[in-house]
Amino acid sequence: MKKGVFLALLLLLLAAFPALAEDVYYADASQGGSVTSDKGYLSVTYPLDADSRVTMTIRDEWGSTVYQRDYGVCSGMFSSEDVYLPQNGAQTTYRVTLSTDSGENSFTVVRVAPRLTDSNVTTAGLPLSDISGVSSPKKAILLDLSALNNQLPMVVPMSLIKTLPFKCGKRCSTRSATCRASS
């Protein structure tokens, strides 16, 4: 019962604050330039010298307005709410413009697809770079198909992940999986 109540409260919290579901990239508009992020949300800060009207506009790479808001008159350190940046393909470029009474500050956000990092996934087999001489993180499992004709089906252990069945007969068919990890 307690577990169900906790899960319901957690779901309500995530529904009320969607940025908690994904990480937020915090950008300082005074830095300008270009930033690359794999985060789904953007929060912009900007130091204001005096009371100033603030408007933030975000446009995609085609110039379409994705987000625009007039924050009214602000003072001190301006901080926007978390703004969702949709992911379109492997990379999406956005132009963020912060307009104040003293001028405009713009910077570019390049949103890239998240990548697997710090993974402990390994595979068994001979490195393809040993066979082909070309650098490759992929591994190969070499099988003597003529010896396998009498040993059907065969199961090859895949280094603590799972087993991979190979079925050989007149035709040999295999199932394979590819794992990629960034370094």
What would the keywords be for this entry?
single chain, 183 residues, five-stranded mixed beta sheet, four-stranded mixed beta sheet, 14 strands, elongated
Descriptive overview:
It is built from three helices and 14 strands. The protein is mainly beta and 183 residues long. A hairpin with a 2-residue loop joins strand 8 and strand 9.
Mean pLDDT: 75
Strand order of the largest sheet: 2-9-8-4-5
Rg measurement, Å: 26 Å
Number of strands: 14
* SSE order: HEEEEEEEEEEHEHEEE
The helicity comes to 10-25%
- Overall, the morphology is elongated
How much strand content do the residues show? Answer: 35-45%
Uncertain stretches of 5 or more adjacent residues: 160-164, 166-183
**What can be said about the biggest beta sheet?**
5 strands, mixed
Structural class: mainly beta
Gist?
By secondary structure, this protein is mostly beta strands. The protein is 13% helix and 43% strand.
Note the topology:
Blueprint: H1 2-16, E1 24-28, E2 34-37, E3 41-47, E4 52-60, E5 65-74, E6 77-79, E7 83-84, E8 91-100, E9 103-112, E10 126-127, H2 128-132, E11 139-140, H3 145-148, E12 154-158, E13 162-168, E14 172-174
Parallel strand pairs: 1-3, 2-9
Antiparallel strand pairs: 3-6, 3-7, 4-5, 4-8, 8-9, 10-11, 12-13, 13-14
